[in-house]
Design brief:
The chain is built from 27 helices and no strands. The chain is mainly α and 569 residues long.
Amino acid sequence: MIVEKIKTVLTSNKLSTFILYGLIAWFVITFLIYPNINVYYEIFFSDGKFSFEAVEKLLSSERAMRSLYNSFLLAVSLIITVNIIGVALVLFVEYFDIKGAKILRLGYFTTLIYSGVVLVSGYKFVYGEHGYMTKLLTSLFPAFDTTWFQGYWAVLFVMTFACTSNHILFLSNAIRKIDFQTVEAAKNMGASTFYILWRVVLPVLKPTLFALTILLFLTGLAATSAPLIVGGTGFQTITPMILTFSKSLTSRDLAALLALILGLATIILLSIMIRFERKGNFISVSKVKSELVKQKINSKIGNVAAHVIAYFLFLIYVIPVILIVVFSFTDVQSISTATLDLSRFTLDNYITVFSSMAAFKPYLVSISYAALASVTVVAIGLIASRILHKYKNKWTNVLEYSLLIPWMLPSTLIAIGLIVTFNTPRLIIGNTILVGTVWMLFIAYVIVHIPFTLRMVKASFFSLDSNLEDAAKNLGAKPFYTFRKVLLPIILPSTLAVLALNFNGILADYDLTVFLYHPVYQPLGVVIKNSTDATASVDAKAFSLVYSVILMIMSALILYFVYGRKSKS
């Protein structure tokens, strides 16, 4: 009798559900809560008693304090430069009547497929000491300084044009929602083009601009690729310094403290943004909106100036992309000397990458990580969203807020938390060490992509018709069968879109990868960054160009799969 009852429990849905919920709870506690709490312990209780030693070490470290100053300087600078360029781009393609706006849009959209370490390495390839543009400038001006593209201004230049993606995506949508009747009314009252832009258009964009400004500040604080690659020794920010300190056991507490400062700044700024959004009241006064019509610039001088600036910015965006694609089809001598010669064009670089396992290995490693992490994080998102959709109590609220923790923390702090927590055996993970294993980076990828995945998948769940599940239940279908046969097919398209975007984001990641990757299994982001070093071989630089081109093609296809097909349907 007892045996039969045990069998019934073991084979019941309740037990499997309990195990599933238990695994989710274990994952949240082990990887989202425990490491972030342990960071505080490692900083202030590293010797078993409370101490401000790490703070004193930080204040006495000139390099660390300089990195803090540089990070805040960069963050403030980006707010100014990126907002100016980003608003200008959106106005050129969405508001003003600029000839060839569709072509300009393609150029401005390149940052969506060409970003991160790939973009920074591309800019260094073009403008660096041995870059094509530097060589061109040297030929025109023999006394030109070949080391001009490094330091603060180089980092600011690269990040200014790298960080306009959000303006292109979100500000473009905001400007399309402007009521044309308001603009037309101002024009009929004799208002000039500039006055309408300043007093009618830009105020409507303020909420979006404010949110983008907060994100820009956070991006500047946590900058990694640009300071490492083009910052040189004279301009290093917080994250590169955290990376340096994290490699030594004696200075790991400094790395944790710097990461904590970065995390606190992130939380404070995000809290300000949320508070501002809640207080804001941004409602159109027009009940019936009319579609915005592109505005002509009446001043001839202003019109010419707008066209010149628009196409000048277009060239800045497309020149690195074009040169990377072109040089990827040249031989190593052309790449090393930054010279273009039709007789030296070849497919050897591509053939080598796809025929040599040594050359293809970084690509294979990144694809494996991206595929496994994307599938895992979507699976967690589906399970968690199902729980949140089915149950509404204090425990589901705790679960939701816990899964959103990575959204409030920079990836640097998450990486440091994992390093200082799992570099020794821990009972919660079976007394094993994760640091130095391939699993560490995999877990980190899953962690940082959980919030976005949860929000998207949860939205799909809550858009479902509850009558579908009730009907299936009345017909005798079990919960898992209902989920698999009724609910999942409906939310599958949006779920696959989220999976594709996660895959795209992981594929060439560097900022998180550089802290946790296994030396034997180097992902693409690390390999591409290493190819920018002065000691890198010419073959490594050639392969890096091929990797960059393939990544751009894959990113374009994924973005088309997610957004392009939707726009046509």
